[in-house]
Design brief:
single chain, 148 residues, mainly beta, 1 helix, 8 strands, globular
Amino acid sequence: METNQFEINQKVTVYTTGEFMGNIIKTEMRLINYGLESYAQYDNVPFVVGTPKRKRSPRKFFETITPYILIVDGWGNPEPDGIYDGGTVLQDNASVKVERAKYGTSDGFGCYGRDFDILINKCIEDGSVTVIKDYRNFKTVNRFSKNG
């Protein structure tokens, strides 16, 4: 259940998708604003503006095609899984370390998102996490598309 209420500079945790492997990125910040805005060919792109922990300047997060943004109250919320499988080192010497990723590049975002959704949904159900706004599975509108 979303609260949709916040105070400016409230401590929040924002979960978004990573740009490299589609993994989930956790950013703790002081919230300034969030909502929907027009961006490029999309009429309703979710965005979050806040100052990340230990930074001075605000940062704006937004995602267009398949947005995945979750804003929860407070800092110290659950950590998402990393991209590595946690133990399979393929090569390790003085100049390079190669590890096996948890999922392949062709597996896409679905695997990391599914794993994190299971984790965070349990936290939401047991009340240890309070959701301010959930843009997971949100549908953006392409103004040039015939199907909306």
